[in-house]
# Entry
Amino acid sequence: MNTITVVSQLISEAQLRFGPLDALEVPEELWEPAMDAVADAGGVIGLDYCLVDGVAVRMASAPFDADVQAVAHPTGSDDPRPLTIE
# Structure
């Protein structure tokens, strides 16, 4: 499965659980290939983010706990929410 598909699935799962998202933090091993794939496709990238499915995807600022796949930033909330393995 390619990186963009994995990131897209994480975004979909986070949106199902938390509603619309402003951003999603992912581990570096997902973020770097996602950034490259979006750039190669001519998509929107910034200094520290890329847009996937309309959501800003950023590299996590700290390592996640073992059961956390990503950290979601729901729209209108200042409270980041961990996306855990179910």
